[in-house]
Every structure is written in C-alpha cells, then in structure tokens.
Amino acid sequence: MDKNYSKYLTITELEKQWGFYVLTAGHSRIDTNQVYPDNRIHPDDHSFTWNKGRMLHGYYLVFITQGEGIFDSELTGTRNISAGTCFLLFPGVWHRYKPNTRSGWEEYWVGFKGSYPDDMMNRFFTPEQPFIRTGPNEMLLGLFQKLIQIIQAAPAGYHQIISGITLQILGLVQAVASHEKLSFDPTEQLINKAKFLLQESLESWVNVEQLAQQLPMGYSRFRKAFKAITGQSPNQYHLNLKLNKAKDLLLSTALSVNEIAYQTGFESAFYFSRAFRKKNGVSPKVFRQKAEH
C-alpha cells in the first residue's frame, strides 16, 4: 500500500437514496516528528489543528495499525491510543487526535453517512466509548485495503460496492467489541501479529527469519507454531494472500497482468502467471476472461 492515499468522494442524489454512502477513505504513515495532520491533503471542513480540534458532519472509523498517540474528545477526555486500536468519530462531537512524535503511526480511515448509519451507529456504538481494541486484525486490514483498492479503480457502481465493504468493516469491529475477546495465549498473539505483518506486505516479499525476529520468536518455533495455527507455512500463507489480492485486482480493475504482478511483488509476469495457474488452474488472463462472461 502506498505511503499516503486519501480520497474525498463526490456524493450524488443516487448515493443519498442508497441510504449508506462513503464520504472519504484513506491510508497514511506518519513518520517520527512529522507535522500532523497534513492539512494540505484534506478539504477545509476536515482540516484541524491540535489546539482547535474539529467537529465533523458524518461518522468515521479510524484504525491505527502501527505506532501510538493520543485521542481527546469532549465526551472521553484524553486517552492513549496504541497500535491495534480503532476509534469512532461521531457527528457534532468535538475531538482531536495525533500520533506521538517519537513513534509516529500508521492509520486507515473511512468516513460515511446516511439514514442507515444514523440508525445503526446509535444502536451499536456510543461516542462516550468510541474505542475498540481489535489487536493486529488481519481481516480488518484486508477490508481496508480492499476498500481503498476499489476506490482507486473506480469501477461502475463502486459507490455502492464500497458502502458494502464499509458495512463489513463495521460488522467486524462490532463483533470484536461485543462478542470476541482477544486471545491471551502469547503464541497465538505472536502468530496473529505475523499474519498481520504479512497482510501489510503484499507488494513485497518477506524474509521469514527476519519476521520471526520482529515478534520475537525463534525461527524454528515460529514456523511450527504458524503452521499449527494456520495449516500453512509462512511463505505459503503469504503467497496465497498475494494471489488472492491478484484475483481481486483482476476482477475489479483494468490493470494489465504485468501491472498486477508488480503490485503483488512478483519479479515478473511470468513467475506471477505460473504461481497463479498453479493455485487456480487457469492463467490470470483466462481467469479474467471467464469472469467477464
């Protein structure tokens, strides 16, 4: 995923009639000591400074995947935010947030509005408790990546498609908040973090030994634990993530096979096509042709 991407969508009467529409989505990595936010990339009604804060007119979900920072609102006071945390923003509620200068952070966000969110958000979430601790949730990260991918490709009818993906994101977050407890098994936590890091690295190849050092865990133990939990080796798991992303790109974009090979980290279209055919039984080109008929 590119270091920074943001999109503020033009909303027509059709989107409003749908009852659930996306206002904006994006992803950014804030380096240490970097000024935040970069108001040059945001419209005036979304810009803010730490001293003034802001109020918005829609609902927003922000997912912090790396780093840490602080959040402050008129209803919560100041809270510390760490990686693996989502927080919700509600219309008309003053707030502000920023990464710590010593750590920076990585954030994904989606803003949305409509008659359906008005009902749903009031039923299942509250501005007094806007924080959801998801941990390094690979599925949540994948949904945000897919959301941004669809917005970048902008296929016909994509406004309704991204509304559906946003609803999936909210459903997953609500499930974590209401029903699921994070595993306290230390090995499972480390493997979940490894899966998350692999999901973040779809445009490159990961050195599994270096990945094990990040956790930290011995390489041999890591490989055994990873396969015991996922049923696959780390390398095979990562390859399957890449090939699944390639399928999505073939179905939702007009990117060439060469471009898709590049975006999924393969050194050439030849190696990409060979791996794709081995997994799916057909070449990328034939897969796309069959999907179009």
Strand content: 15-25%
Number of helices: 11
Cα gyration radius (Å)? 20 Å
Spatial separation of the terminal alpha carbons: 30 Å
How do the SSEs run, as a string of H and E?
A: EHEEEEEEHEHHHHHHHHH
Average residue-wise pLDDT: 92
Name of the CATH first level of the largest domain: Mainly Beta
**CATH homologous superfamily classification of the largest domain:** Regulatory protein AraC
Count of discrete domains: 2
CATH architect. name of the largest domain: Sandwich
Structural class: alpha+beta
Report the count of strand segments: 8
Q: Catalogue the unreliable spans.
A: none
Residue share in helix: 40-55%
Structure characteristics:
293 residues, alpha+beta, Jelly Rolls, Arc Repressor Mutant, subunit A, 2 domains, 8 strands, globular
Present the secondary structure layout:
Blueprint lengths: L3 E5 L4 H6 L2 E10 L28 E15 L3 E6 L2 E5 L5 E5 L5 E9 L1 H10 L6 E3 L4 H16 L4 H21 L7 H15 L7 H7 L4 H12 L3 H19 L4 H7 L5 H12 L3 H8 L2
Antiparallel strand pairs: 1-2, 2-7, 3-4, 3-5, 3-6, 3-7, 5-8
